[in-house]
């Protein structure tokens, strides 16, 4: 199996430790085409995302001793029109476990002994947990805006956690500089395409559970790890004839950090450079998304609506959800706020699927 550079097309074995193409600096895509999706080929005796391994680039059995039971999260009817996929019912309380389980299984299978990663928190928690499970040394970099609970979880899993002064993008720059200077495996959820092979199981599960794909899907958008996975799976379903058209996808950003919203306004092929303002939506506060060009290609190709949520909507929306039993983190509340905002601006929509990406306890100060 090979990586292929998204810019110049250079190929490299997927067993490489190179974080990106050394010919042009482009990010890797995975040279892999999944078989036609078929519910009959799901391993129904496996109670984690690897029940779908027939449609995933999983080599060997490393996953068997690394999986923590991620996935298999329920879908609940929040009201007549809204379905919540409860993805914070995960080992580290966020959807990032889908990607980390696959990425760290891959790392283990190629003999990686230690990884370095940057994160706003949730991906760091996930990578640290799965590295702990796999016996892989782990060092995580987070910005100083990261919730203390997330920093504590990273360290509890045995990883080194470096808290960097500055923005999420500043944190990434410090981490990447370390990798370039000292080497090591950059197990980054944005750079490494194996991560998306995990996040695409979100849609596999939805289809297995509902036997259909809802007509509207809301996805938070920072670095795009869930959005890319969702689109990959939906493209597979289009190819397999499971769906005949893309559902309506609404990608959600915070008004405090909305490079994709600004890009669509200007019809730009790359994200617009924005001033990142303080926001409770720390999980999507990414000013320089590294796969920005790729994500915008998807946005234009599938006519994805990109919506920015005002900061003042976050806490009231989170409170409304908590009062009805859904205690999610601030970033997750943004997705439901976007649903309310969309309905207010454009009218009521049909059935809408919204991910509950992170648990509320992760963003509490105490």
TrEMBL record:
Cofactor(s) named in the record: pyridoxal 5'-phosphate
Protein name, per record: Threonine synthase
One of the record's GO molecular function terms: threonine synthase activity
SUPFAM superfamilies registered for this protein in UniProt: Tryptophan synthase beta subunit-like PLP-dependent enzymes (SSF53686)
Native source organism of the sequence: Pectinatus haikarae
Keyword Lyase: yes
Keyword Nucleus: no
PANTHER family: L-THREONINE DEHYDRATASE CATABOLIC TDCB, THREONINE DEHYDRATASE, MITOCHONDRIAL-RELATED
UniProt superkingdom: Bacteria
UniProtKB keywords: Lyase, Pyridoxal phosphate
């Amino acid at each position: 199996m090979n990586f292929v550079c998204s810019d110049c097309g250079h190929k490299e074995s997927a067993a490489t430790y190179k974080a990106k193409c050394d010919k042009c600096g482009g990010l890797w895509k995975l040279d892999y085409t999944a078989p036609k999706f078929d519910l009959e080929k799901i391993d129904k005796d496996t109670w984690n995302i690897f029940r779908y391994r027939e449609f995933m680039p999983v080599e060997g059995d490393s996953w068997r001793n690394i999986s923590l039971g991620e996935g298999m999260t329920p879908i609940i009817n929040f009201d007549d029109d809204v379905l919540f996929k409860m993805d914070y019912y995960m080992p580290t309380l966020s959807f990032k476990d889908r990607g980390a389980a696959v990425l760290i299984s891959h790392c283990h299978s190629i003999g990686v002994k230690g990884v370095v990663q940057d994160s706003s928190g949730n991906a760091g928690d996930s990578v640290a947990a799965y590295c702990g499970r796999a016996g892989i040394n782990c060092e995580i970099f987070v910005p100083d805006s990261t919730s203390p609970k997330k920093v504590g979880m990273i360290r509890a899993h045995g990883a080194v956690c470096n808290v960097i002064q500055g923005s999420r993008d500043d944190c990434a720059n410090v981490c990447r500089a370390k990798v370039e200077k000292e080497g090591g495996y950059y197990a980054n959820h944005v750079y490494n395409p194996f991560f998306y092979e995990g996040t695409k199981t979100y849609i596999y599960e939805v289809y297995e559970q509902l036997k259909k794909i809802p007509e509207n899907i809301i996805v938070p958008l920072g670095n795009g790890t869930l959005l890319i996975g969702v689109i990959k799976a939906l493209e597979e379903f289009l190819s397999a004839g499971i769906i005949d058209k893309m559902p309506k996808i609404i990608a959600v950003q915070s008004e405090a950090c909305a490079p994709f919203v600004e890009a669509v306004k200007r019809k730009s092929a790359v994200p617009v450079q924005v001033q990142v303002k303080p926001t409770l939506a720390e999980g999507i506060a990414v000013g320089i998304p590294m796969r920005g060009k790729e994500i915008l290609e998807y946005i234009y190709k599938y006519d994805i609506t990109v919506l920015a949520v005002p900061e003042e909507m976050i806490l009231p929306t989170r409170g409304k959800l908590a009062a009805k039993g859904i205690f999610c983190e601030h970033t997750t509340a943004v997705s439901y706020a976007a649903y309310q905002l969309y309905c207010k601006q454009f009218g009521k929509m049909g059935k809408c699927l919204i991910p509950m990406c992170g648990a509320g306890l992760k963003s509490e100060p105490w």
